[in-house]
Amino acid sequence: MTDRPIALTCGEPAGVGLEIAEKAWSALRSELTFFLIADPDHLPGSVPVQLIDDPADAIAVMAQALPIMAHPFAAPRTPGRAAPQNAEGVIDVIAQAVDLAMSEQVCAICTLPIHKKALKDGADFAYPGHTEYLADLGNVERVVMMLASDQLRVVPATIHIPLSEVPSAFTQEVLEDTIRITAKGLQDQCGVAAPRIAIAGLNPHAGEGGAMGHEDATVIAPVITKLRAEGFDLASPLPADTMFHAAARARYDVAICAYHDQALIPIKTLDFDGGVNVTLGLPFIRTSPDHGTAFDIAGTGQANPSSTIAALRMARQMAQSA
């Protein structure tokens, strides 16, 4: 699969994504091949670029210039200020990348950050975010968000909901689906033949025998018993405050957590700049930097490309493993 390039989508033009794309090309030009789908007029212009018509053309171009597959947008780029007229273009670029992945013209997709409010305001975007839109384009009902770095992989079973809603949303069905999708994704796309999966308890001390909540015994434990009988390697439920130090991390390949911050705090503490967002369960490989559009520093040259560089490298590694 790695004889094909990676498609990098432009994301919100007013954010830092295009600046980071140029920096990523400078860092990776002799290491791997990707091309950017964007409006060439939006590029900051700090590196040489070359237009391509076919993804395969990126291979010959990459060493000399950033390959660009042109997708014209309705309005100019103003760093830090999203133009509503460009919302449709952002959405169409994502769809174009998925078409290229589904037709096997690219080995993976890496997506630069979008701004959900800008898409809602400018194009009545009907999805909570990137991941849900990609799932719809890929014709799958449920996907899993995994945050990954060299030190840790984490999966939140529930994501962007208030903490007060987590206990009702964190059901046996949700947990079982999350485990199954995560295990398959690690096997099929990450080269982990027999994934060791740790499950974080919902409550402090994993409920401490019911003294601090019953969900760990009534929701998590039955799922683990069922899936262990099918051959899954599961450790659970583990107290979340003791499962992320180095010795504990060495005992599992991925940690599934009950809610957003339980998963993201440890990985962002360990590797804030190098964490990568991976979507498991799609019919194609998708990675993304683990940060937003950063309107406050857009156009200043301060944007750190580390997460995007890591995301592109991880996309290539996953393509090699698939």
From TrEMBL:
Lipid biosynthesis recorded as keyword: no
Gene Ontology molecular function: 4-hydroxythreonine-4-phosphate dehydrogenase activity; cobalt ion binding; magnesium ion binding; NAD binding; zinc ion binding
Location within or outside the cell: Cytoplasm
GO biological process terms, semicolon-separated: pyridoxal phosphate biosynthetic process; pyridoxine biosynthetic process
Top EC class of this enzyme: oxidoreductase
Catalysed reactions listed for this entry: 4-(phosphooxy)-L-threonine + NAD(+) = 3-amino-2-oxopropyl phosphate + CO2 + NADH
Keywords: Cobalt, Cytoplasm, Magnesium, Metal-binding, NAD, NADP, Oxidoreductase, Pyridoxine biosynthesis, Zinc
Residues where a divalent metal cation binds: H160, H205, H260
GO CC entries: cytoplasm
Pathways per UniProt: Cofactor biosynthesis; pyridoxine 5'-phosphate biosynthesis; pyridoxine 5'-phosphate from D-erythrose 4-phosphate: step 4/5
Reported cofactor(s): Zn(2+); Mg(2+); Co(2+)
Residues engaged in binding substrate: H130, T131, K268, N277, R286
EC assignment: 1.1.1.262
One Pfam family recorded for the sequence: PdxA
Cofactor note: Binds 1 divalent metal cation per subunit. Can use ions such as Zn(2+), Mg(2+) or Co(2+).
Subunit structure: Homodimer.
HAMAP family: PdxA
Further comment: The active site is located at the dimer interface.
Protein name: 4-hydroxythreonine-4-phosphate dehydrogenase
Organism (species): Shimia marina
Taxonomy of the source species: Bacteria, Pseudomonadati, Pseudomonadota, Alphaproteobacteria, Rhodobacterales
